Amino acid sequence: MILVIFGASGDLTSRKLIPALFSLKMQNMLPERFAVLGTGRTHFSDDGFREKMKESIHHFSIEESPDHRMIDDFAGCLYYLPMENTLAAEYEKLGNMLNRLNSIYNMGGDYIFYLATPPSLYTVISGNLAKAGLAMQSAGIRRFIIEKPFGYDLKSARELNRILHEIIDESQIYRIDHYLGKETVQNVLVTRFANGIFEPLWNRNYIHRIEITSAESIGVERRGGYYDSAGALRDMVQNHLLQMVGLTAMEPPSSLEPDAIRNEVLKVFQSFQPMKEADVPGQVIKGQYTASKVRGEFIKGYRSEEGIPENSRTETYVAMKFFINNWRWGGVPFYIRTGKRMPTSVTEIVIHFKRTPHYLFQREPGVLASNQLILRIQPDEGILLKFDVKEPGSGFNVKNVNMDFHYSELAHLRAPSAYERLLYGVMTGDSTLFLRDDEVEIAWKFLEPVQSAWVKNSEIKVYGYPAGTWGPDVSGRLFEGCGYTWRYPCKNLADEGEYCEL
Ligand code: BG6
């Protein structure tokens, strides 16, 4: 099998793809005869590319002290072809190179094409591959991996699907959402459907609300050009956050077959209560980080980052409240938020259970409900259940305590990286962890009123928040009249509090 990477000189290849392939090699999970062909506009020789990739493995591999000989051995299967991938004529060169590799390794011509390029090139590259006769499945395996963002809005995603479907079959397309490759995201399904104690409570009768946070302490780094045209809604909400909502809210699938799971996620997306443009200001909060000092260090505001216009209105923070109109979830609010330059990097799903109908005891001040189940995606991966116990002493004073499981306790088990799982999935033709055309489109459809209200209604504010804080205060407005607010998670699963890391 040959993995062809378009955009091989980019960050994704060195930070994620090559280290993940190296890990697969270490686990003996690569095909016996296997080569990687990097392509891109930058000129590298095969050896130059190998040296650069060896450095990436040293920097970014999750393997503990990777062995030099193993790295050299792996690097031997890396090749590079400088090419202008927008030009159809260049694909003859690519075809010749693939033939050469097939004969060196005595392979039968099975290819995976990884499009790690700007989205505008997805249809161009696929079209050129098809014209060169390289996309036809009858000649061998032909799978296409497409990175996010898949489209820019509903219209462009539909158009992208339409063009791709003219060139290749849906079964050849593997749309990436790397969150689906995370162990802890998959564990949402196991927690829900392997344990008899949770499922009976997993509905509107016992659950008060669901909260999903994906916070990052980093800013936009060197991705200003891309980020300013995307913003947090496209970069995180349309994909990673909605997928987590899908897995948390879905019905039990009939099996673990890819379509059985994806059909259930699709049904959740189809049940989103449609938002009206007029509701957007009340249901969706848009924020952008401003300059600040965090732990003594000066942090630039978003508008002063490289590649960002000084009057940019792009959001680096989104918080929203919405409902799912079905029997399981009718009336249960879902609160989701994501942002850059938050106090810490943490992703978690919090299930807030309803209060008991009549509370007999003296409660700790400020604690409104006793029971929360927290599915921690990262870091300090694990599960935390919060419940009330009697405080020792006279009377019936109650204390809210934690019962927690940390994945680090399974120290003997190695957790593969998301890209490792995803690449392995494509190699084995398992599309469970990839997005289907209808899923992507419906996720965009749900967000369409938000995108359109933000464009049309200049009254909608982009609220500033100082870097290193939990986003604009005004996001608390989503809870108006409820008497509760966001959970403020810390790096350690068991701790919480707005300022606990400072
Ligand atoms: C990517 C976004 O999809 O996910 C980035 O483009 C974001 O902006 C990243 O930083 C977060 O991924 P993770 O795995 O670090 O939570």
Keyword list:
alpha/beta, binds 6-O-phosphono-beta-D-glucopyranose, nine-stranded mixed sheet, 17 strands
Q: Ends: how far apart?
A: 50 Å
| List of distinct ligands in this structure | 6-O-phosphono-beta-D-glucopyranose
Radius of gyration: 24 Å
Structural class: alpha/beta
Work out the helix count.
12
Protein model, in words:
The chain has 502 residues and is α/β, with parallel strands linked by helices. The chain is built from 12 helices and 17 strands. A 9-stranded mixed sheet has the order 16-15-14-13-7-12-11-8-17. The protein has a 6-stranded parallel sheet with strand order 3-2-1-4-5-6, with helices on both faces. Helix 5 runs parallel beside helix 6, helix 8 crosses helix 12 and helix 9 runs parallel beside helix 12. It starts with a strand and ends in a 36-residue tail after the last strand. Bound molecules: 6-O-phosphono-beta-D-glucopyranose (BG6). The site of 6-O-phosphono-beta-D-glucopyranose has 3 residues, from loops.
What's the quick description here?
The protein has 502 residues and is of the alpha/beta class. It has twelve helices and 17 strands.
Give the SSE layout:
Elements: E1 2-6, H1 11-26, E2 35-40, H2 46-60, H3 68-75, E3 78-82, H4 90-105, E4 111-115, H5 122-131, E5 142-146, H6 154-167, E6 173-175, H7 183-194, E7 207-215, H8 224-249, H9 258-270, H10 280-283, E8 284-290, E9 292-294, E10 297-299, E11 317-322, E12 334-339, E13 346-353, E14 372-378, E15 382-390, E16 398-406, H11 418-427, H12 437-456, E17 463-466
